[in-house]
Each structure stands twice: as structure tokens, then as C-alpha cells.
Design goal:
- The relative contact order is 0.12.
- The chain has two domains: 128 residues, Beta-Lactamase, CATH 3.30.450.20; 110 residues, Beta-Lactamase (2-Layer Sandwich), CATH 3.30.450.
- The protein is of the alpha+beta class.
């Protein structure tokens, strides 16, 4: 009987010891997880600041180009003479010249008439003559303020960092010029650091949209930087409720979400930064899929 009691006490002691160690291990794991999340949030805070800085730099750069183009003789003369063929030729020459710089690789230029109708779109020369003031905030602001303006805005071409400047000849306004920069160079910038950038536009905020591979990638959003986005992690993205969280984890994947605010201070989508802390898996997944490979 005595031995039984001793064994019973020993079992209880061993059980308590294992229980204590188990609780301590759980607490340690929770602490490690919280520490990892805290570190990742600090990591993302830094890179979100970098993203905002890069966006501001792009807006300033687009404004500088717009101002210079507003003073360009070839642009002034073709608008003054309403010679559309000459304007198309001049715009194409400028786009080709600027495209030699990686930041301007996908630059777009849009000329407007003085009555604020589309005159030449460098990316679609067959679409022109539509009135822009009904849906283009930056163009209206350029008129109202009588000076160049820059910001983020969704238009017919999609979401771009844009700048608008007037075109004048001998002091008379003869139209305006708009410069559009997309997000691909920013996506590539972060990709070089092992970070994925997604620029998501709410589908209900799109001004117009042509059917394409972007349609069904995400239910409620278009991916605006499709060429530089890591489409290998689409399944994880589909499970995130962007309106309810600004930080999300899935196994070794970490995501940080920031509202995409346009020039009128309206949220039109989200910026999403992603990193996979599993280096081996990250190196494999960065062999990015192209959109056409998904279908």
C-alpha cells in the first residue's frame, strides 16, 4: 500500500512537471510568435514609408515632365494648329525617348484640348473626343488652381500616378498635357528586396475596364501592377478581408495592407506588401507566374 501511494505521488509529480513544462513551452511559443509579428510589423512600417516616398517621388517626376512638355514647341504647335497626326507623331517620339529610363518604361502621355476633351492618348490613338471633366478630378483641379497638379487617380487607362499641366502659346491656353506613370517600376523595386507589392483597385472604382486575364484573379479587385505581381500567392490573397485587417499571417507568409487613397482623398483600393520568411520557398515562388499561365 505504501509503495502504491509513493508511486501515485510520483506520477502526480511527473504529471505536474510535464504540465508546467507544457504551459511554459506554450507561453514561450506565444511570446516568440508575438515577437515575430512585432518584428514583421516594424519591418513593414519601414517599407510602407519607403513605398510612400517612392510614390511621392514618382508624382513629382511626372509633374516635372508634364511642365516641360507643356513648354515643348512640338506639342504647342500641333495643339495650336489642331494637327492630330502631328501630335500623335510628337507624343510617340517623346514616349520612345523617355522609355529608355526604367522608371518611364511604361510612361503614357495624354493631350487634352482647351475645352477639356481627349485629343491624343499615346496608348490608344483611336480613342479620343470624349469629355473628361465629368470624371477626372486632377484635370478639374488643374483648371481651378491654374497650376500643375499631381496625384493618384483612376481613369480610362486604370490607376496611375498622374500629373496635369497646361499648354500655353503666347500667353493663351491651348490645351493641357497629362503624364501617367504606372506601378510596375515600384513592384520591381520591392521585388529586388524580396518583397512583393500588389496594387489593388476596387472593381467598383474602375472608370472603364476591357476584358482580360485580370478579371477573375481576385473577386473584388483588379491587380494594377500585374506584370510585377507575384501571382503564385493568389490563393492566400483571396482569403484576406482587406477591409477588416491591415496585417495578416499565413504560415510563413506575412502581409501588410495600406489603403490606396486617390487625389480626391477617396479610398479606391489597397497597397499590399508581402514577404515569405521561408527563404527557400521564397526563392522558388519568385519565379513569378505570368497571368496567361494561370488559364
Amino acid at each position: 500500500m505504501l509503495n502504491f501511494r509513493k508511486n501515485k505521488v510520483a506520477y502526480i509529480v511527473v504529471f505536474i512537471v510535464f504540465l508546467v513544462f507544457g504551459l511554459l513551452y506554450d507561453l514561450y511559443c506565444s511570446y516568440e510568435q508575438e515577437q515575430q509579428q512585432s518584428n514583421m510589423k516594424s519591418f513593414f512600417d519601414y517599407h510602407i514609408k519607403q513605398l510612400n516616398k517612392n510614390i511621392e517621388d514618382a508624382k513629382l517626376s511626372s509633374m516635372a515632365i508634364a511642365v516641360l512638355l507643356g513648354q515643348n514647341d512640338s506639342i504647342q504647335k500641333c495643339l495650336l494648329n489642331l494637327d492630330r497626326d502631328e501630335c500623335i507623331k510628337n507624343v510617340n517620339n517623346i514616349v520612345n525617348t523617355l522609355s529608355a529610363v526604367s522608371m518611364y518604361n511604361n510612361i503614357k502621355i495624354h493631350l487634352h484640348t482647351k475645352d477639356l476633351k481627349s485629343y491624343v492618348r499615346s496608348w490608344d490613338t483611336n480613342q479620343f473626343g470624349d469629355t473628361l471633366t465629368s470624371f477626372r478630378y486632377l484635370i478639374n483641379q488643374a483648371i481651378k488652381k491654374q497650376k500643375p497638379v499631381a496625384g493618384i487617380e483612376a481613369g480610362v487607362a486604370g490607376v496611375y500616378m498622374r500629373a496635369v499641366s497646361s499648354v500655353a502659346y503666347e500667353g493663351e491656353n491651348i490645351g493641357s498635357v497629362e503624364v501617367l506613370l504606372n506601378y510596375e517600376h515600384l513592384g520591381n523595386f520591392f521585388k529586388e528586396q524580396g518583397i512583393d507589392l500588389f496594387v489593388l483597385l476596387d472593381k467598383n472604382q474602375a472608370i472603364s475596364h476591357k476584358p482580360g486575364p485580370n478579371d477573375d484573379l481576385l473577386k473584388d479587385y483588379y491587380i494594377e501592377n500585374l506584370n510585377s505581381a507575384n501571382l503564385n500567392i493568389l490563393e492566400i490573397l483571396r482569403g484576406i478581408d482587406f477591409e477588416k485587417t491591415d496585417f495578416y499571417t499565413y504560415k510563413t507568409h506575412y502581409f501588410s495592407m495600406v489603403p490606396l487613397i486617390d487625389a480626391s482623398s477617396k479610398r479606391i483600393g489597397y497597397y499590399v506588401l508581402h514577404i515569405n520568411t521561408d527563404t527557400k520557398e521564397r526563392n522558388i515562388s519568385q519565379n513569378y507566374l505570368h497571368a496567361e499561365e494561370l488559364f
